Amino acid sequence: MTTNERTYQVIIGVLAVIVLILGWWIITHPSAGSSMASDSETAAGMDGTSDSDANGGSVSGPISDSVPTTTGSGEQVSVAAQPAGSSVAVASATLSQPGWVAVRDASGRTLGAAWFDAGTHTDISVPLLRATEAGQNYQVLLYVDSGEGHRFDLHQDILITNADGSVAGTTFSAQ
Questions:
Q1: For the whole prediction, is pTM greater than 0.90?
Q2: Same domain (yes/no): 16, 100
Q3: Residue 84 has what pLDDT?
C-alpha cells in the first residue's frame, strides 16, 4: 500500500468518526436538527395558561429534569381542535398569577408562548414560532414567569403541575 492510499484511508476514517459523533449529537439534541425554534429561543405575547385535558385527564409528555415545576391552584385552559396555522386559538384560560400559555408538539418542543396577567381570559391567541401541522396533536401548558422581563424562557420559567405531579395542560389536534 502506498503512502497516498494510507493517507486517504486515514482521512476517510476521521471523517467517518466525525459523522458518527455528529449523528449522535443530533439524536441526543433533537432541536439541533430541526428548523423550528430551539428551546432557548423566546416568544413574547400577551397572555398564558393550562390545566387538564378536555376529558378531565392530565397531559403527559417529555419533561426535562432541569425544568423547574410548581403545583397549580385553579389554573385551567380550554382549547378545541382547530385548523393548522401559525397561532393557536385558546377558548379560555384561567391563571392564579401572571404567566405563560405555551404550545408544544408531540416531541416536547415549544412552538410558541403568550403572556397573560392573572385572571380569566377568553378567545385568546398564542402566536407560534413554527406553525402547527394538520393531523398532529399538540399540548397547551401553563408556566409561571420567572420575572425575567416578560420573555418566555423554557429553562427559567416554571411549569405548572397538578397536585399528583402530572403536567397541567390540555391537548388539541390540528386539522
A1: no
A2: no
A3: 96
Beta sheet of 76-78, edge-to-edge order: 76-78, 87-95, 119-127
- Amino acid code (one letter) for 40: S
Q: What is the pLDDT of residues 6-32, one digit of tens each?
A: 888 888 888 888 888 877 777 765 544
CATH code, 146:
2.60.40
Q: CA 78, CA 52: separation in Å to the nearest integer?
A: 9
SS3 state at 5: helix
For residue 42, the model assigns a pLDDT of 37
Tell me the three state secondary structure of residue 128. coil
Contact 128, 88 (CB under 8 A): yes
Looking at the structure of the chain, the number of domains it has is: 2
Are residues 148 and 175 in contact, defined by beta-carbon separation less than 8 angstroms?
A: no
Domain assignment of residue 114, given as a range = 69-173
97, pLDDT greater than 60: yes
* Nearest residue to 50 via CA among 172, 167, 141, 128: 141
Amino acid in the structure at residue 118: A
